[in-house]
Amino acid sequence: MATRFPVEQISAPASTITDYSGNTTAATSVQIMPANSAARLYRIQNLSTTVNLWVNDMGGAAAPYTPGSYMLSPGAYYEFPSVLAVSVYADSVIPFSAARY
Asked: Taking the model in full, what pTM does it have?
């Protein structure tokens, strides 16, 4: 069956998943996931309905409009392979859902 979207082949399923969900600290970058060389993927969703969430999955501090940081608009979801530390930033306190496996 053909598909329009690329499919990632993962050789073995993840055996564990760790929840890193929480809330941001207003106008402060917070590391939510430590570096983990055994990690396969991480996922994060901005649960705010009004505030952007900035994510840095390159081991640095998350900040608005800064190289290495990516903006998740309200309700947006992101999933990516990264073994480096992950940090988040928002202008105000907002909830996010995050996990790594």
From this structure: 0.84
